[in-house]
Amino acid sequence: MVEAAEVEEPEELVSPTNTNVGALDYLTLQDYFVTAAERIPTHIMDTPANVTVITAEEIEANHYQDLNEALSHVNGVVVFNGGSAFKEVVMNGDIRVLLLINGRRANNIQNTIFPTEKSELTMLPSMKMIERIEIVKGGYSALYGSDAVGGVINIVTKKGNRDETTVDLNFGSWNRYNYEITNQGIVGDNLSWFLTGNIGKSKAYEPGGVTTSPSILNSDYNDDALSFRLDNTFDESNSLTLDFMHRTHHYYSKLGGTLYNNLSLSYNFKENSTVPGWFRYFNNYRKNSVIYTELNNSRMQGFEYQNGWDLGKHKLIVGAEYHKSTSSLSNPEIDGNTYNYIVDANGNYELISDYDDLKNTDKAVYLQDTISLGKKWSFIPGVRYDHNDKFGHKWLPKISTNYRADDKTKIYASWGRVLRVPTTAELYINDDGTFYYGNYVVMDAGTEEIISPTGTAIALQRLTPEVGHTEMIGLEHSFNDDTIATLNFFNSRLNNVIGWEASPAGYISRNIESQKSRGMELTFRQKINEHFGYNLGYSHTKLDYSATADHYSQPNGYRVGLHYSNKNFKANLLSIMTSGLDESVFASKNWALFDLNTSYDINESATVYFKALNFTNQNYSHVSANYPAYGRFLQAGFQYKF
After folding, report:
1. 155-180 per-residue burial string, b: 16 or more CB within 10 A, e: under 16
2. What is the pLDDT of residues 29-53, one digit of tens each?
């Protein structure tokens, strides 16, 4: 097991690592630190939140190929995988989930692929590069602003700590293969790096259930990526970190794909303290080449600053953010005519030429105080002032509290306001991707006459941000060092929810109604001995919102995992089950999947592994019968370190 860490030890707070985590110890990580919940390293038992950590050891033991696969086995997390273009994650019944990489925002408000897509799970570094994945459920807009409604996922990448190269080769069903090389190194006491590169390809996958079923149209892809992290340490408190990721994901072979270039430069200070700070610049660029969308490119760049002070009973942090998003699009074409003016709800019009930039700027400041009320209680108020140049300002407060009944038990509760700003896709793109909608209608450049696809006027309506609140209460108890149970209840309400509505222009986005979400989670994890362990999970979610309930809810979800490990051999049997689905929408009311992940260490350098995902070949769907999910997938791989 992980050695119990005292909160007062700053070296543990600076950079929580998984170096001493055993093959099964990730089942009971009560002696662990996370950063996503409070933006400072906090002992998991002192964090007033429903937190799950996926460690590097768990990733390696299961040889997870992508974030989709890793998240799908977390209790209460629903992953929608409708082919290689659609990658959606749902937490606390909500698709508005914020994705972070080393604490910086990855969600782009431009969101130029699909209007309904809230988080993009393809714009990530290799799984080999991930040190840990912090999954924090609940509303966190007071710290992070837009999108943090269902929760936050923070991906922390590895820092090079030795000279080592790893080669990983795997192949599997549907002519899928992936070749990957990883290199990490150190120079002296100051400079280190971690580098990964891969080439991957897959033909169209097949659904389960029937062997004669055809491959799923447009589910093939090519996936090539290069990522690196460079760290220069000046002293024990100050360092400089450079992150870069390049990825080309060509899906739908006849339609195109997406290119990503993401860059981040961060100066880190006060690292040897309980309230570390940073000043960061980042630039996330995405280029689309999908023929059915008019939105082509997007870029989000920004500056972020955070500082903190440990004042004894108070740990105070303040921060400021400046984010600017731009996207490019081509002129709308309707009935063979090209238009290049748009009119907003106030009657003003502007020229939109080919690849003109649509801009969105967000500025914010936030303040949070972690107040220690004796040895058992902590009280954490926080507030964020968020100003968007298109949608004005919002105050987003949050209050949470944590009670350590004893060394093994915590009870927590929280309440907070949440926010999601409309994306550019929701503002401009119709569901068939051919003309603007939402705030705008198209004008003929020659006559300056308002035009709609049917020749009739469009009733203008100004989109407003989705706003609401979330509440959560939970209990976590460790029966001993190897057995832990958690119970969590959540409730949320979101107003001005953006959905589809019929109009003369076709289906367009509107602020339609409110959404209520409530539910609970129960998890039990136990390491029986050094060889065996298991986990059990049940989640219940109830949505009161017709536009998403039939697509994203998993009324009853079940997670079961059986784990075995010895010196050379590891095996994990993982199951995802659900019941209570609407048969008028889904292929079946109930379904159960079983994944088997095994690996064998030939020696200290060489490992062979085998995976059988959905090995019973179940015919199921994540969303509806129109989107059948993967059938049986077999994969074999070889990994060598030198």
Report:
1. bbbbbbeeeeebebebebbbebebeb
2. 766 788 888 899 988 888 999 999 9
